[in-house]
Input
Amino acid sequence: MAIKTPHVTVDGVIEIYNEGIFQGIVLIERENLPYGHALPGGFVDIGESVEDALKREMKEEVQLDVEIVELLGVYSNPKRDPRFHTVSVVYICKADQNPIAADDAKAAAVISLNDLQDMDLVFDHNEIISDYLINRIYKS
Amino acid sequence: MAIKTPHVTVDGVIEIYNEGIFQGIVLIERENLPYGHALPGGFVDIGESVEDALKREMKEEVQLDVEIVELLGVYSNPKRDPRFHTVSVVYICKADQNPIAADDAKAAAVISLNDLQDMDLVFDHNEIISDYLINRIYKS
Output
């Protein structure tokens, strides 16, 4: 029985804190197609949990050791990725250093919540950011 | 580039209500390996969202039209499934009829929360039930 399911990915909404003060969240500029700005993320490997995949990808792409805060959601619209069907598990996480672009990221920056609302992101990352902002309002 | 990731599955914690009164949640007895009691669930198809996969699987296995209440969690321990690595997206959902076993389910029943705590389930479904019971306590 050959079972085929969508690919599993992880993405991180990384909150950056400087001496306990919230600065913004990390966006990258993608080195590979589709080009554009995005949350850092990548594919989950067989044999690793999604939480471990998240920590590995955040380290590889933006050189951050993140702490997971909570699961934000699971995004699986078949059209969310122009390449093929991916299911992304998205976590809110936090770090207290600045990101450094590496691996698939050409650039990385900390974006304030005000500036975030004007960004045009690839995939369905604008929808994820919208859900994140609603989540923050509920918690504040 | 051949990307390999774990298989994606969905499982449902289906709350059954009778005239608005909570009765318990649905468990099935599996027709296929691994044998035992489990939450109803199955594989996500390429081209369908996980929410649509959940509704399809609940209809196929226990003949219920479910309404999704909320995302409970994502379970991805590489050892959770003895066959191969699966990442399960688990939703709390509800229905107001009784389950009827079909497809991969040999039997289906509504189990009260009291009885649920004594059940020995396959995969990591005892862990999922434990998380579900904690979630219910927080909401009540």
Notes: The mean pLDDT of chain A is 95. DSSP finds three helices and seven strands in chain A.
